[in-house]
Known about the structure:
The structure is a homodimer.
Chain A: H1 8-15, H2 19-26, H3 34-47, H4 53-60, E1 65-71, H5 74-79, H6 82-94, E2 100-106, H7 109-121, E3 127-130, H8 139-146, E4 150-153, E5 164-167, H9 170-182, E6 188-192, H10 198-213, E7 221-223, H11 228-239, E8 247-250, H12 253-265, E9 275-277, E10 294-296, H13 299-316, E11 322-324, E12 328-330
Parallel strand pairs in A: 1-2, 1-3, 3-4, 4-5, 5-11, 6-7, 6-8, 8-9
Antiparallel strand pairs in A: 10-12
The first copy, chain A, binds a DNA duplex (30 and 30 nucleotides) through helix 2 and helix 4.
Amino acid sequence: MSEPKVTIADVAREAGVSKGLVSFALNDRPGVSAESRIRILEIAERLGWTPSLRARSLSTRRSFALGLVIARDPEVLGSDPFFPSFIAGVETVLAPQGLALVLSVVPDEKTEMRTYRSLVSDGRVDGVFLSDLRHNDPRIPLLQELGLPAVTLGRPDTQSPFPCISVDDTPGVAETVRYLISLGHRRIAHVAGSPALLHGSRRRAAFDNALSEAGLPAGQSIETDFSVAAGADAARRLLTQASPPTAIVFANDPMAIAGLGVAHELGLRVPDDVSITGFDDIDFTRYVFPALTTVRTAPSDWGRAAGRTLLDLMALGTAPDVDLPAGRLVIRGSAGTPLRP
Amino acid sequence: MSEPKVTIADVAREAGVSKGLVSFALNDRPGVSAESRIRILEIAERLGWTPSLRARSLSTRRSFALGLVIARDPEVLGSDPFFPSFIAGVETVLAPQGLALVLSVVPDEKTEMRTYRSLVSDGRVDGVFLSDLRHNDPRIPLLQELGLPAVTLGRPDTQSPFPCISVDDTPGVAETVRYLISLGHRRIAHVAGSPALLHGSRRRAAFDNALSEAGLPAGQSIETDFSVAAGADAARRLLTQASPPTAIVFANDPMAIAGLGVAHELGLRVPDDVSITGFDDIDFTRYVFPALTTVRTAPSDWGRAAGRTLLDLMALGTAPDVDLPAGRLVIRGSAGTPLRP
DNA sequence: TGCGTCTTCTGAACCGGTTTAGGCAAACCT
DNA sequence: AGGTTTGCCTAAACCGGTTCAGAAGACGCA
């Protein structure tokens, strides 16, 4: 229970060597004979010594922890399973290295910036993950100024010194639109995510492009904040118009599921009266009715890639960008041939 | 950018006093004259000094961080918005104190126990939140042995030295069952959560009780792991029987939403053919069709209460249990009068 | 005036590692 | 043989705070 915690001095004394040598042996650095190294490690093992993280932190000026600051309305956060999966993915690479993840959930951008500053001035973390990239993201110059290694989740639209993990959403959106067109849809609308968020505006641009490439006129788009409530509102507006779209492409699954609910509520059949597609392929999509046609993404792959990249960056001082394979369309029941085109 | 980080020694030199006195002034402890204190703090301010968390950690043997270890399948984790809200609640009390939250998401119980051990042996955290309480929870004796302060989320079924934050699920479940009975339902089934989890088995017991108190025969119950997939399976089994229930009480909302999907898929109308209720009132419930009748709980209140209690426990050595107000039934469209009772 | 007490403050030890300058042999030159 | 290199190791400084024993001065009191 309360054994007086064995320290490096105990190990050194027991082995009849200096503290320094124990330290060298532990971090296997040159200048220790093979026998000594083995003997020291054996004694450390026997004494049950684990080097004090705190002491190590102080002398090495590292904290052995990585940070993730999430600035989202808890409500939006709750309906989006991205982060749990992402974090689970990150952990698979952090845990074996003995690194911890420090998580902050903050309500607004101002608090967010303050949080980064205090993470740094407290020396709480050795690096951070930058998620939900925004246009002209102020966090990038901030972190650069603070000298904190970072990895961005998504490709920034500004000059950035940090490696990024990104995936091109264009093919997924394009595939969705082409699929809908092949089913006979001509009036296709888009419920976009937040235009302030890069993946929000990029998915929207991909949607516009796909339509024009198919030679169709621009479709209706409604901007939202990615929340379920906003998705429902948008769906209601679209579907109660004089001549409503026959298909709606939602920028994420939670909004699409809300759209499904709205369609049902309005007495519309899905997909006969309106086709609905989502984005992300969250767990729910398989179990709503009709099951949601959507684009599969892999948040835990993001996590793993981001974790590895950040580790590389910190160890090597540089790390290459990672391009994750684009999401593919998963065809289920929520999109079909329009009854009245 | 890379100012050579001002330390306590700089402040002491500038103020013409000893390091010790600066430390005393900072932690406002007796033995410092009012003038000195003011002058020192002013100089600290001017120099932009923030005491090094790392040095502080080493000498005080505290880490100024709290831990949360989540042992859940990422898939289940993703569809349940409890943790994001809970964490947001926790942060509101940690952040002002300068405390950080260290999060671990682990795949299984063995890793979980190992994680607690290493959090302690690394001195990574000063206390932890124990969520998803299980029967005869092995984490309680473990943490007791490790001497780590903890707060349990839910009332343990064994002797526990830790304060707990709990809410009685019984009234919510009972209210739901009574409501269904009042609508005319007699064959009511329950899709229970994991029996290994305390809230899973307690909600089930509440269900059984409510039926027997109403003088009805025991209803069907199916155990699940709280996952969306399991909820869908259970619903399918229940609804494809010879004489299916007219109402199903699900132990959480994600499963209930899956149940809604299954009912639709089977061509059943909700609530005419089958009524469905959930538990937790997650964001989605308002936007599925029909909107889900469920029991409202407040995860961020749990977070705040748990945070405060853990702080009290660490500061005072003891803290009282907290009983959160029981969840109330929120009536929406998914439950109604059975057409064929 | 002398003595005890209180307040304010200092110096040094301490937390538990890492790191650097340097000592001492043994091995390697030529 | 003498000088240099090399390998292994030690002692001490250092990271930046906290804490404790005790010094110095102010004050009260007999």
